[in-house]
Every structure is written in C-alpha cells, then in structure tokens.
Amino acid sequence: KMAAATAAGGAGAAAALWSEVNRCGQNGDFARALKSVNKILQISKDDVTALQCKVVCLIQNGNFKEALGVINTHTKVLTSDVIAFEKAYCEYRLNRIENALKTIQSASQQTDKLKELYGQVLYRLERYDDCLAAYRDLIRNSQDEYEEERKTNLSAVVAAQSTWEKVMPEDLGLREATYELCYNSACALIGQGKLNEAMKKLRKAEELCRQSLSEDSDVTEEDIEAELAIIHGQMAYIMQLQGRTEDALQLYNQIIKLKPTDVGLLAVIANNIITINKDQNVFDSKKKVKLTNAEGVEHKLSKKQLQAIEFNKALLAMYTNQADQCRKLSASLQSQSPEHLLPVLIQAAQLCREKQHAKAVGLLQDFADQHPASAAEIKLTMAQLKIAQGSVTKACMILRSIEELQHKPGMVSALVTMYSHEEDIDSAIEVFTQAIQWYQQFQASRTRGAKPKSPVHLSLIREAANFKLKHGRKKEAISDLEELWKQNPKDVHTLAQLISAYSLVDPEKAKVLSKHLPSSDTMSLKVDVDALENSHGATYVRKKAGKLTGDNQQKEQGQGDVKKKKKKKKGKLPKNYDPKVTPDPERWLPMRERSYYRGRKKGKKKDQVGKGTQGSTTAGSSELDASRTASSPPTSPRPGSAAAVSATSNVIPPRHQKPAGAPATKKKQQQKKKKGAKGGW
Prior knowledge:
Elements (H helix, E strand, L loop, with lengths): L1 H26 L2 H14 L4 H13 L3 H10 L6 H14 L3 H10 L5 H13 L3 H14 L5 H18 L14 H14 L2 H20 L6 H21 L3 H13 L5 H15 L4 H11 L4 H4 L2 H17 L3 H14 L5 H12 L3 H14 L4 H14 L3 H9 L8 H13 L3 H22 L8 H16 L3 H14 L4 H14 L1 H8 L14 H5 L16 H10 L61 H4 L37 H17 L3
GO molecular function: 7S RNA binding; ribosome binding
Subcellular location: Cytoplasm; Endoplasmic reticulum
Keywords: Acetylation, Coiled coil, Cytoplasm, Endoplasmic reticulum, Isopeptide bond, Phosphoprotein, Repeat, Ribonucleoprotein, Signal recognition particle, TPR repeat, Ubl conjugation
C-alpha cells in the first residue's frame, strides 16, 4: 500500500510539473520551464518527452553546447529519428557545419524543418547550386507565413553566386517589396559590374528599411541607423569601386562610429579602409586590422573574404617593414592555397624591397615551373623585375617565352618598343613576323579557301610595314605593303607607300604601279576654304574686306579680276656705301674665313697679364714699362676698359687695385683669428 501511494503521489507531482512546463512554454519562459523539466527527470530520468523538452529549453536559452551534450549522453533514448533536427541545429549554431550536414543526411525522414536547415547549411558551406535547388523545392512545396523569408534566402544565394562565382544570375521573378530583397538584388548587380544600377537598388532598400522600421514605435533612430549600416557599407563599396575614395572613406568611418554589433560588417569595412590607405596612413591601417581579428569573424564571412583580409595583412606587414611577419603570413597563405598566385607575388615583392632581385626571380621561376596554369602572370612579373634591373634583353626573352600571349597586339607592341630601345631592329621585325604567321595559321585552321584577313591581322601587317619603312628596310616592307594592297586595292595610302618603296628599289615597277593612282579630278576634295580659314585652329585668318562705297566701289568693279602689283621696297644701304667702289665679294663670310684675314694683332702689354684677380698687376711691371714714364705721352684707353675711368692717369682705380703684400697680411690676420677661436670665443 505504501509503494502504491508513493507512485500515485509521484504521478500527481509529474502531472503538475507538466502543466507548469506547458504554461511556461506558451509564455516563453523557458528558464522556468527547464527547472520543471529537471524535476520531472528526477522522477523519470529516461523520459523521452522530458529529455526532448530539456533540449528545446536549452536551445531557446542559447545553451547549444549543453543541449548537444544532453543529446549525446542519451543516444539510446534520443535516437536520430527522434531528435535529428535539434542535434543538427545545435551543431549548426556551434559552427560545426560539416557535422550538421551529416546529421541531416543521416535522418530517415526529411521534414520541412530539416529541409530549411539543410538550405542554411549548404549556404554556409558555399555549395550555392545545391542550396538554390533546396530553396526552390521548399518554395514550391510549402505554403505558410515564412514564404517571404524563403524568397529572401533564395535571392541571397543568387547574389552569392554572382559575387563569388561570377555566375550570371537568372531572373527569379521576385517582387522586391522588402529592403532585404532589394539589398540582395543590389549585391547581384555589383557582381555583374552594374554599379550604377546597384546604387539605385541600395537607395530603394534604404527607403524601404526606414519606412518598415519607422512603423514600429519602439524602434529608435539609432536602431534604424544600425540596421541601415550594412546598406551604407555596400554603398561605400560601390563608391570605392567607382574611384570615389574620399566619399567611400567618409561613409566607412561613419559606420564604424556607430559601433555595429555585426563583427563581419566591421571586418569588411576595416579591410576596405586598409585597401584605400595602401602604403599611406599606416598607423590608421594598423588600428583597423584589429577589427578584422575580432572573435567570430571567420564564421560570418565567406572564404574569399577571409582570404582577401589575410592577403592585406601580409601586404600591410610589408609596407610597415615587418619582413618576418610578412614572410610568415605569405607562407601560411601559400600552404593554405598552394595554387594561388598572390602569396608568391607578396614574397617576391618583399625580397625586392630587401634588394634581393635574383632570389625573387628564382622564386617566381620555381612557382611557374610547378604551376604552368599561372606561368603567364608569373613571367610578366619576372619581366618587370628584369626591366627594373636594366636587363631589357632578358626581359624580352621572358616575354617571348609566353606562348599564349606572343600574338597579342599589346605584347607585340611592348616587345617591338623594347627591342627598338635596345636598337635590335632584327629581333623587332622577327616579333612582327611570328605574330603575323600565327594569325595566318589560325585563319587557315578555322576557314577553308581564301578568306579576308581579320582586322587585327591586317593591323599587324601595316604596323610591320611602317616599322620597316621607318628603319630603312624597304625591300622587306614591300611584301607587307603588297599584301595590304591585295586585300584592299582601293587603299590609296597603301599604294602610295608601295610606290615610294619601289622607287628606291625598282623604279620601273614604281612607274607601273603609279598608273593605278587615281586622277587629280577624282581626288579633288570639296573643301570650304573660307570656313577652314576662319576655323578655330587656323594659323592664318584672312581679313574680311571692308565695305566699298562711292568711287572706290566703282573703281573695284571696273578693275574686275585684275590683281594689284605690290611695290617692292628698296633695300637699305650702309651709311659708308660708295657706289664707285666695288663691294667686297667675301663680305658675307665670317672674318676668320676671309682670304685676307691675318689673325689678331699681339698686344704690347701681354706680359702684364697675370693670374690674379681682375685689375691686379705683377710686381715691378710699372718700372719696366717704358710707356709709363713721365716723358712718354699718355695712351688713350679703349672704351669700356678699366683705364677709361680716368682720362689723365693710367693708374688702376683703388677699388680694383690690390696693394703689394696685402695677401700675406690678410693670411696672418686669418691665422690670428683661428688661434683666438681655439680659446673659446
């Protein structure tokens, strides 16, 4: 009787506890419901319903790890069929995405809840094609109040495909009635490069967001700005892509000041600011890097976003002269993505900053040998390094080894320019020849019979011909010009070039070809001479004739087309011209080239010229000069000479005269000053 009474009491207590659990669940008080469930489990520890309720209460309270522990502890009772969704959801929230996928796939029955979670898991795994199919199936086979959310998720998948996989998004026919749908549509447009259209979508999304949130009286302006932060961040990104870096930077900083709780948004904005700063404002970039290291960032961003952030960290380390940190980060990136090109380029750039150019070229060569798919880009970088070292010929050899780019007009132009700089005309012509031959072989493989050559092919032939003519290779240019003329016999310019080339090699052939030139009548151009002379770029403008009145008008009419003769002005004759004397026939030659030129006369005072300053004289020169005696008359000084200062004396003026012994006195004074300076003055 005692045992029966105890069981009856326990059953009554359990019923009361279940009522409490039901009431708390309806009120959303899961913490209190959890206490009642624990009491039930004390009465019956293997109660399946109680264990399920405990897991749900823990999930609602955000205790995902504890909920997963309960599931794993009671695997015999809580089988995969019973609690598959709750287990997969806990694993999803704990960022154990692969485990969540296995749990969903192992479930015997795929419920609508599992399908919804399956779509989320596929999105996090970046399996966008499978995710798109899953959401389409959900939208097609379900009708409830969550249809709008499913369409939003579907548009997010399309936007991700456009952004990360460069897939042309298909028109889903979704009505963009919410700001989330407008935002996702804008992201898809950004992936296609339609920046202006994307900006319009974002402005519409901003307007819809304000309207939607303003209807709720509990939402403040700060809450609205926080919700708009992601839209504004995408606007700033478009500005940055358009080159409006100042506007983008201002908007980025405004978002950071709001201190949004989304660590993923902050990390992306900080990374974009670092890309704007580049090697400038390094202190600000160092502060922004901390935002990219926040906890949980790796679960908020895609793999490509995280990879871009790591690349920028390595570049920032290089710009801040942290060589070891740069090498460490780039090596880590290379180990994660061995086929990726950027880590190797960063390492090579760091070696170049350390003046180890040969080592950088060797590193790039090794990578090109191991990854032939990226060899073209690597070799372009190697050629750039060789040019920086001044090895232009070696750079040309590297460029010519890139087979898939040899025929490209840009590559041909670069090689010809470089060879011309090195004055290697033969190699430049060889580059033209190889490119023309490639196009000939390509056309022969694509068509049958004689077909007109492509515009690129003809352009290369013309450039080759012009190059050969410029460097005097007339015979080699003739074959190219004949080929061009054959393709277009009406091309007068090519025919003129061909005749010019033949005139130096085979004049008879040039005469024969000249018969194909059009007559002067057919080549006459209808040109409005007055309009041409009065145009803005005309160097000569004819003056407009003034109005003629009275006698002048009659005189003009009478003269008709008779041209007035211009009177020639008489040339001016020299003042000392004598018509009786025959002019000097050599007067137009310089004096030194005339037959009667005998050189300049030697001066009598040549011995007085010294090596001192202007106006100085050698000691005793005045005593030895007979012209300076009192008996000799004063010589007349030449105009402009120093002696012209005084008409009655030949003495050099005091301001130019250096007294005897002055240099020695000055030297002694300088020595005295130096001695005094040693005393501390």
